[in-house]
Structures are given as structure tokens and as C-alpha cells.
Specification:
The structure is a homodimer.
Chain A: H1 19-24, H2 31-37, E1 45-47, E2 53-55, H3 58-62, E3 70-76, H4 86-99, E4 105-109, H5 114-118, E5 126-127, E6 130-133, H6 135-139, H7 145-169, H8 172-179, H9 194-200, H10 213-220, E7 233-235, E8 245-247, E9 258-260, E10 262-264, H11 269-276, H12 280-288, E11 291-294, E12 300-302, H13 309-316, E13 323-327, E14 332-335, H14 350-360, E15 365-369, H15 377-389, E16 395-400, H16 402-408, H17 429-447, E17 452-458, H18 465-477, E18 482-486, H19 488-491, H20 497-508, H21 524-535, E19 539-542, H22 544-555, E20 586-589, E21 591-595, E22 600-604, E23 623-626, E24 631-634
Parallel strand pairs in A: 3-15, 3-16, 4-14, 4-15, 7-10, 16-17, 17-18, 19-20
Antiparallel strand pairs in A: 1-2, 2-13, 5-6, 6-13, 8-9, 11-12, 13-14, 21-22, 23-24
Helix pairs in contact in A: 4-20, 7-13, 8-10, 12-13, 16-17, 17-18
Chain lengths: ~650, ~650
């Protein structure tokens, strides 16, 4: 077996063909070959067709004693609505490290949602000569993880409403009789999961017959306040008409209707649990303690109270295994989890990163992407993901484009689907220079974590030497370890070799330990304040509702959790229109919610849509199948790279 | 390679342990071994883990010239709510044929819905020593087909509401501009799928610029009547609160709310399409022509009108490949599709049966199960499934139990979850004898198709010799080719060897050609009348709504489709309480609907629930995971076999 990941040299064509044409021009290796390159044997994975395999979590146990590789996180500057190529850079860098610099490398990526794929995005596998293949398998179904999340999320939702319904019509005794029915021998038993609720209630009895009427009542009656239910149903489809709905209007439901709604599946707390869990038993506990709402007396009600935590784990037991795929240059990719980057933390999974770090071993590289700009993605990577994983990155990349920097410097608005203003297509060093304040703040914020920061400028054909030099100089002045111009979109790994070398040096020369932005044992408001300060805010303003929620979560004992800000990705501030590096603003907190199972409190800064819509002409118009060859066509005429 | 399927001899224990314990007592073979036994090499399938593989449709092309095996369908008498062991008999018979009678055999089964698995059913993999393993993989996720159906169904649903929404706020010109936007060179193009709508409108132009304003209007504006939309969303969860809902209540949806609901995923027309399709290109056409409602002028609107037929096909392209699994005795099983047995036809897929018939070859056996009693399942197997597949069965099995026959003979009501009356636990030949009228009618109806009928009596420990003889005699008197007592639940394949021999003889001695119950070219009402007559009805009564729908479908050109009756499985008549073989009743048709893509008209006899609910104590209380071993526990204390 070769120690090198250099599996294939690309023959690049100029101008770069459409993404789908590039992807289809390459015959992928059988995934067994990719697995073999990182010392995985068939017992370590389950095949899902020829080009995907689920890597079993048991690999972690097997490699427990071996050392980790370098850990690199890819963030970005505050993006335009077109996206600045963070995924593409992540993939391109890995192709450089694996196929040109002879390093062991694994790319860790999020699984994309199918909603945007059929809506406006068209896919999320990178672009140009830096892509994950096969593109269609990456973008659709994959190995079923999001489908499993949808199934689990909605089983819990059905359990909630049905329980409220059954409790409304049954006496304590009838409820108890149904929950603990006598078996053939006339003996009642608690099922295993019931002991979790009994323990929460402080009841240590093991024989149902021994419960007092009061204990029977508190055990059997969850007494969920329908108005407190925060658990929503999910679907992996852009279906705006499900944002707000009324359920329970059938005659059999006896008038117990209630307003609720659907989120897109990746917004499910179960997705965040999958991303943050560290083992099967940890996942079992997190799923069980997810809070779905409160009892009428204000006690948090969990999935385990509803008896469904075990079933959720069974539904998710394969999903916990990351999916192995490959880049265009045959380097390995682990695709796993894709939580929302605002109401959740927007990072791929801890278990994939952990497995990858062991597989590449000392001297190897794991490159993982953090959603949105560094103010959100990298911040949550450090303060939430690394906190739960106990992993330490050595290097953080910040992806920048001349286009976005010009926007931050005062360039005209950039709107997806509309032609770019001339300012973006011809040289304008002054705009770039002015925009570098945005880059500089991301650099200094990221340096604060103790990592070396490398700026990767994702070069477009219209960028000029003078513009690129301006960015390079500004980055170094702001404290970047290095700043490198990259052409991986046009050239594949070869276009990111300089970036690869810079990253290697940054990793080898890290001087400081990892430093979180805030400790966990301060108050919720103090933690929010620390993050707001990193945005440039001079203060925080809480709505009445936010105050109420903070008080409740503190009372319920959840104030020790890290904070996951739900904020626009288009500005450091709460206003998408405020580009550059705004200061002196007051950050408004509209509401505060919690994902107790995943393990974070999420303040809402402004309104977050958790269910996208479809445009008049969705991407699905261009997605078809040639039934004679079985080949798909994904016309990319309308494909726009949009940051998730 | 051995020509025999006899892979393993079971060590049976008495009394029979719980299903999960039997299943867990056997280490399944790697699915490659099972595949090899039916001459499938790795190029013919995609692995999904170690115990499942998707058999590629290309196998059919490769084996086009070779002969088919015998084709056996398993139906049943009118069941009790406890089910009479049709799946178990199907599996047991195959274990007998493969492991004891040295025949090539493939079992073709439906994929179970996860809804009932977590609700009241607990699984559908057979039972006792006649099961498909691994049980958990069979019951959950499988290879993602139902998830793909859910995704496709709901993408179409989102496309409908969003299209109505966008049409409401945009001029013809604006709509057209968005549907056919100019590309970078300023040129407009139709996407491929748009030519389907153009062709339907009789427009043969290929350049968007050439359309007249009237053509632009009719092309761009589907003008869907919101009240006519029959397409509902689906979910593979028992969620009764979604039966009737109001959507579109968010402020962004501008007051365009509408009442609709969710069905369980297996009730989706896409599931019926999957079950009835014969090739990838046939599936593409069926998905595209699914009708979702009408325009305001009464024209049917299809998935292709919405531009989404291609994307649906891409979502379903892996789902069209059947999943290979194994029985406890190592014989091969193809699991594929699981449409509802009332609003759809309740049979597993045509492509799985076709592949299986080629794989076993002449002299081999394919045993496929038809949902519900023979009045529904076998009838639809013959008149819908065989019509579309052009396959001819040689033998139809009718599964009977002493318990159900006693019920038909006048025994007390049988209720799931309640103890059986003494009548069912001690000898009562008179009740059995009286109940055989039900069996006799199923036999004569089934014989009418030109197949040999073999009755399989699924023996319970409480059945007596006199009772069993009564059934045998009644079956032969009613024209059965043979009637055999089976103990496959207790003994595995060994307990169904006599059944296997009888089936072999029945197949070898078939004398008649396949004869459908009705021709396709008569009117909808004449076809409904023919089926009603087979139930014993003396006439049919149509509601005003049913009359209206029949008139509309006839006008729209759909009257040539076969009929799929949506009727209770608990009686030949429309009233579940009428046991035995009722005659002289008038069959009421409440409404008539259509699945145009799948290819049938379905009259509703009474009210059919297409979304089950959860009981107070759902099965999920007993489904958990031992996170130390990764093993699941499915306590079977509450498992009840219920026919689907």
C-alpha cells in the first residue's frame, strides 16, 4: 500500500467546465481503494454502493493509543450572498496536501441538505477542479443520515402530541394500566426506559405495584403544556408552506388542534446531537435528554420522559458512522452531519474529525470546514465543538475573495442571480483596501484562540496583482501567519500547493495552547456579552422574552452550557447591511432557546428562517435522468454557490 | 457453487422463543454468499453493509433470454385483527423449498413501514422460525427506499404550493422570464422537461422567443385550483395529528393557507409507482404523469407540468433496485416496495419478481405475498400487478387458521391486545366447519384466475386433528388443488415441506391460462361491478361525489385503467363485522380517486385512514440499544402480528 494519497493527476481544461462536467469527467476509485490508503480494512467499514462507505466508530477504539494528525479549521470572511468558496478551498487544500505534498490527509465536510440542492443551490460538493465525487451521491441521500434524523425527529414529535392527546382523555389509573400492562402471568413490569423517568422523579421502586397513587400520577402524567412545546417537525425539503401550520384538525383529534411548524431537517436538534456526540452511549444520553417543552408546572420534559430515547438511538445507530468519499484527486473525505450554522453550530461531526485525526496520524492533516464566516463558524468550532471534543486545532484558515472585500470596502450590493456591478469586475484597489477591515477583525478574533491563522485568497479571473497584494499585506499586518493566493478552482490541488505549504508550517509552529473565548461557569448573559464583544458590539439588549427564557434556563440548571448565537452571516452585527467591521452597536437578543441534548443555549439575534422556500424556477428543472444510460443531468446553468 | 439453497439447518427450540431471540440466535451469512447462491456476482449488486445488497436492474437485461421459474402468490382468508401468518407462511415455504427440497427459490416481500413498527406492530419480518434477518435492518431504514419516496413525495408537494404562490403574485411575463431566464449570452432556452408541457399544450416551438403571449400564458401559468389538489404530504411515522392540517399560515405566505394533511409514506402514489414500474424509463414516465390536481378549467396537472418529474426520478433511481436479504435458513429474499393494500394494491414490486423469476430459472420458485385477504390482495395481484408485469402465476396459496375460521363460523369477536375467548382455545369443529364458507369463496374466486389453489393451514398449538381435517376436506371440496397443515412457525422450513411439495405439484400441473376478472376496455362502473360481484355483492351504490369523479376521470381519458378497491380487509363486504361469506349486500362507493402515474382508479368503500396513530404505550418503549455492545433490544412482550 502506498503511503501517499496521490492517486490521480488531473488533466485540467481552461476555461473550467461546469461542475457536473468536471465531476463526470472522472471515474471515481472504488471506495475500498480510498479506504486502503488510510489503512482501513473491510472490517472497519460498511459499503454503501461502490463509492461510499460508512466508517465504523469501532475504529476509534482500535486506534485509541495512536497519535493525532494536525487539525485545521477552515472559516471565512463575512461572505457575499454568492459565497466565497470555503468548501472549494477546503477540498482544494486537501487535494494539494494529498496529491502534491505527499501528506496523509482527510477532508471533513458537512452533509448538504437536499432542500437547497433542489431549490437554489444545486449542490455543495465544492466546485471546479476541487470537488467531492460522485457529486449526485454526495448531494442526495448519501448514506441516509439526514433521512434517519428526519425519522427520529418526527417520531418524537408524534409521541408528544399523541401523549398530550391520550393524557387528556384518560384517568391516572387508566394511563398507568396502559403504560405498565400486566403480562400473561398477570405481572406488571417497568420497561428499562421507564426507570429514567422514575429516577428523575426520585422514585427508586422497581415494582409497579408498589407505587402510591401520587407516584402513579407523577410517573404516568407528563402534563405537557401544549403552549410550551418547542419541538417542531422537520422535512429535508424547501417547503415554505409548512413554516406555520395548525395540526390536529381531524375529527378524531377532538378539537385538540395547535399551531406549530416544520423546519428543514438539518435544523433538527438531532442533527446537532449527531454533530456533537462523541460515542454511541453519549448519543443515547443526549437524545434522551433533549427537552421538548415544559410541564404545566415548569419542569422540562425530555424524550426519555416520553419513552422514546432508546428508539431514537436505534434509528440513529448507523447515522453515527461517518461516510467515506473521495475528492477529484482521489484523496479521502469524511462526510458527516450538517447542522444549521445559526440556530445550531454549523460544523461537521466530532466523531468524523476524531477518526480522521487518528487515521492520518502524526504529521498528517485533517481539514474541517466551519459554516458561515469566522465570526460564527470558527467561533462555534472553538467554543462549542472543540469544547465537547477536547480536540485542539493548530491552524485556522480564513478564506477571502477580492469580491467580498470590495463589498466590505463599500462596493455596491451583491445580489444572487443578478449581474455583478462593474466595481467587482475591474481593478479597484481602494475598495479592496477599505474592505480589509473585515478580514483583519476575523484574523485577530481567530488568533485569540491560540491558533496560527492562514489567509487563503480564492482567486477569480478578474482579480489583479495589485488587489491580491493588498490583501496579502493587510492580512500579514493584521497578524496572519501567512496569506496565500489560491487557484484550486481552476487547477485542482496544484492551485493550492502554496496554501498547503503555509498550512503545514503554521501547524508545525503553533506556540500557544487553545484558549476559549469564555469559560462555561459564568452566567448566560456574561457569555453572550463576550461573544457580542468579539462582534464589535458595545453592549447587548435583551427583549422581555429573552430575559424570561434566560431566567428559566438558569433555574432549570442549564446555564453552564456554551452559547450558540443565531445571527446573520452577512455582517459582524445583527444587520446584514452593515459591512466591514462595525463597532459601537448594541446587539439585540430577541429570544433565547436551548438545545439541551445537543448541549447549547441559542440566543436569537433577529429572525432566523429555519425553513427555506423554492424560487419560481427551482433547480429541479435542470435535474433529470437519462433513463437509457442511467446518467443524471444536473444542468448547472443556474447553479450558484451559496454559503450554508 | 452449490446448486442448493440449503445453507443452514436450524436447531429449533420448543416452546418457540420470542421472535427477536430466534432472530438473534442466528449469525446471518454475508450477503455476498446469499447472492452467490443465485448466481449474482459483485457487479450485479451494490452492498449496503454486510447483510443487505441492492440488486441492480441491469440483471434483467443480462438475463433477458433465459427462462422464468414458477411464480407463486400467497394470499389469505379474511383475517382476524391478529393476522393469520401470511408473511410467516411465505418465508416458511421458501425455507422448505430452498433448505429441504433443494429448489432454487427467492422470497419476494414488501418493505414494512416504520410507522407501525414503532406503533403497534413491532416488525414485519415473519415470525418464529420463519423470519427474514437481520430483523432490525429489515424493519428500519432498509436501504432507504421509503425515505427516498418521502423525499420525492414532499418535493412535489412543496413544488405545488410554491407554484400556486408564485403564480398568484406574478404577471405572465414575469413568470415566463423566471422560468426561461436569459443566459449569459442573453439567449433563452427551454429546459428539457419543459418540452413535455409544451407538447401537452400542442406547442411545437423550440425557441422561447417565438411563443405568442397566449402561448406564454398557457405554458407559464398552470392555474392550479387549490381546492382540487389531491397530492398530500407524507411521513413514515404514525402521526395522527397530521391527518388534517392547515398550511401556509406564516406571514410570508400572505394568507394563502389551505387545508390538507399527511399520509403515512407507504400511502404515497410514488410507492405504488415503485411497485408497478417495469424499468427506469417506465418509472420516469409514471412519475412525470402523476396527477396532483386540476387547473381551474379542469385539466389534470402533472408532476411534469411542474417541472419536477426528472428530479423525482433522480431521487428514486436507487430505490428501483430491490434489496437482497436472507431467511433464517439462508435462502434469498428480495424486499421491495410496500404500497398500502387498500388505497393502493398492496403487493411488492414487479421488478423484484421479474429479477427473481430469472434468477431461479425454470424449475425454481418465486414466492410473493399479496397484502390483506385474497379478496383484496390476490385480486389486485392478478388484475393490476400481473396486468402491468405480463407475468403469469401458476399457483396461489391461501393461508388459513383455525382461529380465523372459527371467527367466520360465528365465534366471538377477536380484538388485538385482549385475551382470546375460550372458543378459540379448545376444540370446536362446528365453528370451524361453519367458517369454511369464507375459505371456500376465496378458493373459488382465486381459481377463477386459472391458477391452482393450495390452502396452507398455519397450525397453532391449540388446533385439534378434527378441526384441521375439517378444513382440509372443505378446501378440497371447494376446489383447492391441495390443502396442507404447516408448522413452519415452530419448525422453520421443515414444518412447510409438505406445503412445498404441494406447491411444486400445483405449479407443474397448471392447466389453464391466466384469466383476468375484467377487461380494461369496459367502463369504470362495469369494472367496479365485476369486483363487487366477486365479493358477493348484489349491486353497487355510488355517492354523488363518486359519480362526479367517475365522470371526470372518464372525460380526462383515464377510464381504461384497472380498478384498485379501497375496502376493509376484515370482510368480503364493506362492513368489517360481516364475517363468513356475505351475499346480497349493496356495495357503497363513497368516493373515487385515481393514481394516474401508478396506473389505477381507486374507489373508496367506506372511510380509509391513511395515517395511523400511536397507542398510549407505543412499541418504542421496548426498543432500545445496548450502547456497550451496539445490540438492540426489541422486547417482544407486546408484539402482535397484524396483517398490513
Amino acid at each position: 500500500m502506498s503511503s501517499s494519497n496521490a492517486k490521480r493527476k488531473l488533466q485540467v481544461v481552461s476555461p473550467v467546465p461546469a461542475d457536473i462536467d468536471v465531476a463526470n469527467s472522472i471515474e471515481p476509485f472504488h471506495i475500498c481503494e480510498i479506504a486502503g490508503d488510510i489503512n482501513l480494512s473491510p472490517k472497519h467499514y460498511d459499503l454503501y454502493g461502490k463509492y461510499k462507505a460508512k466508517v465504523l466508530l469501532s475504529v476509534l477504539d482500535e486506534l485509541q493509543g495512536s497519535g493525532d494528525g494536525y487539525y485545521v479549521v477552515v472559516g471565512g470572511i463575512t461572505p457575499t450572498p454568492l459565497g466565497e468558496g470555503k468548501s472549494t478551498t477546503t477540498v482544494g487544500l486537501c487535494q494539494a496536501l494529498g496529491a502534491f505534498l505527499d501528506k496523509k490527509v482527510v477532508t471533513c465536510l458537512r452533509q448538504p441538505s437536499q432542500g437547497p440542492t433542489f431549490g437554489i443551490k444545486g449542490g455543495a460538493a465544492g466546485g471546479g477542479y476541487s470537488q467531492v465525487i460522485p457529486m449526485d451521491e454526495f448531494n442526495l441521500h448519501l448514506t441516509g443520515d439526514i433521512h434517519a434524523i428526519t425519522a427520529a425527529n418526527n417520531l418524537l414529535a408524534a409521541a408528544i402530541d399523541t401523549r398530550i392527546f391520550h393524557e387528556a382523555s384518560q384517568s391516572d389509573k387508566a394511563l398507568f394500566n396502559r403504560l405498565c400492562p400486566p403480562n400473561k402471568e398477570g405481572k406488571r413490569n417497568f420497561s428499562n426506559i421507564m426507570f429514567r423517568r422514575l429516577s428523575k422523579l426520585g422514585i427508586s421502586k422497581t415494582n409497579p405495584e408498589d407505587l402510591t397513587p401520587e407516584e402513579i400520577r407523577s410517573f404516568s402524567r407528563l402534563d405537557i403544556d401544549p403552549n410550551s412545546v418547542t419541538w417542531r417537525r422537520v422535512m429535508d425539503v424547501n417547503d415554505r408552506f409548512l413554516r406555520k401550520i395548525t395540526i390536529g384538525q381531524g375529527p378524531e383529534e377532538k378539537g385538540m388542534f395547535r399551531e406549530t411548524g416544520f423546519d428543514i431537517a438539518v435544523a433538527s436538534e438531532i442533527m446537532a446531537v449527531l454533530a456533537l456526540t462523541t460515542s454511541l452511549s453519549d448519543m443515547r444520553e443526549r437524545l434522551g435528554k433533549m427537552v421538548i417543552g415544559n410541564s404545566k408546572t415548569g419542569e422540562p420534559i425530555t424524550a426519555d420522559d416520553l419513552g422514546v430515547g432508546g428508539a431514537l438511538t436505534v434509528l440513529m445507530k448507523d447515522a453515527i458512522n461517518p461516510t467515506l468519499m473521495q475528492t477529484l484527486e482521489g484523496t479521502p473525505v469524511l462526510v458527516h452531519a450538517g447542522p444549521f450554522a445559526n440556530i445550531a453550530h454549523g460544523n461537521s461531526s466530532i466523531v468524523a474529525d476524531k477518526i480522521a485525526l487518528k487515521l492520518v496520524g502524526p504529521g498528517g492533516f485533517v481539514v474541517t470546514e466551519a459554516g458561515f464566516g469566522a465570526d460564527i463558524g470558527t467561533e462555534k468550532f472553538m467554543n462549542i465543538k472543540c469544547r465537547y471534543s477536547a480536540l485542539t486545532p493548530q491552524c485556522a484558515i480564513i478564506v477571502a475573495t477580492i469580491r467580498a472585500l470590495k463589498m466590505h470596502g463599500g462596493g455596491p450590493e451583491v445580489v444572487a442571480g443578478k449581474p455583478l456591478d462593474q466595481a467587482y469586475l475591474s481593478e479597484n484597489v481602494a475598495l479592496v483596501e477599505a474592505g480589509c477591515v473585515n478580514l483583519a477583525r476575523h484574523i485577530s478574533n481567530t488568533k485569540g484562540y491560540g491558533v496560527n491563522v492562514v489567509v487563503a485568497v480564492n482567486k477569480f479571473s478578474t482579480d489583479t496583482e495589485a488587489e491580491l497584494n493588498t490583501v496579502r499585506n493587510a492580512a500579514l499586518a493584521a497578524g496572519a501567519y501567512d496569506a496565500v493566493i489560491c487557484t484550486h478552482h481552476a487547477h485542482g490541488g496544484k492551485g493550492a500547493v502554496d496554501l498547503g505549504i503555509a498550512v503545514q508550517q503554521a501547524c508545525e509552529n503553533v506556540a500557544q495552547p487553545l484558549k476559549y473565548l469564555y469559560p462555561l461557569d459564568i452566567s448566560i448573559k456574561e457569555k453572550i456579552g463576550a461573544i457580542a464583544k468579539s462582534y464589535g458590539a458595545s453592549g447587548v439588549e435583551y427583549s422581555e422574552q429573552a430575559e424570561k427564557q434566560i431566567e428559566m434556563y438558569s433555574r432549570q440548571g442549564f446555564s453552564g452550557l456554551p452559547i450558540c448565537m443565531a445571527k446573520t452571516q452577512y455582517s459582524f452585527s445583527d444587520k446584514a447591511s452593515e459591512k466591514g467591521a462595525p463597532t459601537g452597536f448594541i446587539l439585540p437578543i430577541r429570544d433565547v432557546r436551548a438545545s439541551i441534548g445537543a448541549g447549547f443555549i441559542y440566543p436569537l439575534v433577529g429572525t432566523m428562517s429555519t425553513m427555506p422556500g423554492l424560487p419560481t424556477r427551482p433547480c429541479f428543472y435542470d435535474i433529470d435522468l437519462d433513463t437509457a444510460t442511467g446518467k443524471e443531468s444536473w444542468s448547472s446553468s443556474l447553479l450558484v454557490t451559496v454559503l450554508m
